[in-house]
Structures are given as C-alpha cells and as structure tokens.
Amino acid sequence: MRDGSPITHLRHIDVAMPNFAEQRQFYTELWGLTEIAADTGVSFLAAEGSPEQYVVRLRREAHKRTDLIAFGAATAADVDTLAAQLVRQGVQLISEPQPVTTPGGGYAVRFFDNEGRVVEVSADVTPRQHRQIEAREPIPVRLSHVLMNSPTPEATVAWYIKHLRFRLSDTMCVGSRGEVMWFLRCNTFHHSFGIVRGPHAAFHHASFEMRGIDEFMRGTGRMRRLGIERLWGPGRHRAGDNTFSYFLDQAGNTVEYTTELEVLDEDTWHPHLYDLREPANADQWGTANEMDEFIAAKSHNDVDPGLFVAPPI
Length: 313
What we know:
Layout: E1 9-17, H1 20-31, E2 34-39, E3 42-46, E4 56-60, E5 65-72, H2 76-88, E6 93-99, E7 107-112, E8 118-123, E9 142-150, H3 153-164, E10 167-173, E11 179-185, E12 193-197, E13 202-209, H4 213-225, E14 230-236, E15 243-248, E16 254-258, E17 272-275, H5 279-282, H6 293-298
Parallel strand pairs: 1-4, 5-8, 9-12, 10-17, 13-16
Antiparallel strand pairs: 1-5, 2-3, 3-4, 6-7, 7-8, 9-13, 10-11, 11-12, 14-15, 15-16
Organism: Streptomyces caniferus
Protein name: VOC family protein
InterPro entries: Fosfomycin_Res_Enzymes, Glyas_Bleomycin-R_OHBP_Dase, Glyas_Fos-R_dOase_dom, VOC_core
C-alpha cells in the first residue's frame, strides 16, 4: 500500500434502472462503450481503450439506484489488510474478502460508506485486451472519475480520507455559502472520486476520458446531433484543468465527456479553494452555457433507494 492507501484506481460504476433496454442502447450505440458480457437484465460495458474488464455495469431494477462504486487494489493481501482495518474502525462489511464471479474474476471486499453507498475494492482482476483509440475516434478511452451527491459532504469527505486514504486535490466554494464540491484522488490523476453538496445522497455524474480535444469535441457534437439532452459545456474546468461536456442518460443520470485531466506531482501539490463566483473557475474558456440552479438541480438526481441495501449481484 502506497502511503497506507489500498486504492490504486477507479474500476467501474454499477447502476440500476427500470428502463434497462434504453440505457443499454444509449451506452453502446450512442455513448461509445462496448458490451463484453450480458445476462438477463444485466450488461457489462467496457471502454475500448481501458484494460478494465468493464467500466459500467447496468442492471434492470424497479427503482433507479447506484449499485456500487468499484476501486482497484494492488494485491489480494491489500484487500485483506483493508478489510481488517475497516472492521477495526467500525465500518460495516457487506461481504468478507472473497473471489469475484463477474467478468475478469478477482478478489474483493464490499462495504457500506458512511451514507450507505456500496463500495467494492478488488485485486487480481484479469486485464482486458484493449486497444489504442485512433485519431478522430470519438469514443471513451477509460472511466475518468465519479462524483456523488451528499447532504453531509464534510463528513463523507472525511470518511473517504480516513478509511480509504484518498487525498484532497481541490475544493470549490460559492462565496459565503461555503464549500460545495471536493475532488479526491487515489493516484496522480487530479481526481478519481468526488463529493458534491446536495439535498440527498445520490449519483451526481460519471466522467469518461476521450483521446484528445478533437475526439472530445466530436463526441460532444455527436450527442448534440442525436438530440441527447445537454446540461453544460463544452468548456474547461479550473480544478483538474479538464474539458467538460455534460449530458443526461436515459435514466436521468449525468454523464460527462472529458479529456486532459491534470496529473499531479504528489510531492509538491497543495489543495486550492476555488470560488465559483469567478466564472473562469467553472469554465476557463468561457465557452459553456451559463450554469444556473435549474441545470445544477438535474445532477442532484433522485433520492437513492439503495442506501444500506446490498445489490443482488
């Protein structure tokens, strides 16, 4: 474990929804992921440029929920060590470390975070045979990061720092209204995970890295031509220095195309506090549509009925 942290990277985000067929079509035919395995009401979707077996798992369910957030660990021993630490710290395990039966196999532990989200940490997953994304090919290279809404964000950020040893990269605030968004890293990417102040615990957005600016813009244009609801972008954030174009998938979850996420020097980086009242802190380019409370509210998402409830798979 580097600096005591068991987490090496983000693996996948697993979501459930009633309109499974529409979601499956959206992510494969429109968003640019590849289905590598499927069963009745379940679909495993890979990013062509990523060695991860899959980056999104879709599951049919009567009510929309986040099934789990999955991170990687270097070794099975790290998974065992983490599980023992979590138990000592009073974290509720869903399952003891055990073999994984999803594509790629592996060895994993599952547990609830402080607000009831399901987190999985796994090792020894067989890498997927992937490929280099070509120039002008507007499909995701990898899953970049996932952010979650929280009504108690300070406590949730502290939980991930304490128990999983995430490091704080930057924070966003809105003047005297206080801090609203926290970016957390588990490797040298500016963020792989983050927390947003919201009215309830729920999925905020998942972001997918594109090959470069041209591929990012081509993907953005494709979504707009197809009539997919655009929330915000294209633009370029200050925190992370990455590009952004946000859309809504067929279940009302926010998804993002991005590229050029900042890579940090762990030895010299110090977190910043950026005030969103300064427009360049939200969009350095000034090309995105203006963010307002109505647009922001769409990423608050629905109340998640899956808190402190383990998914069936």
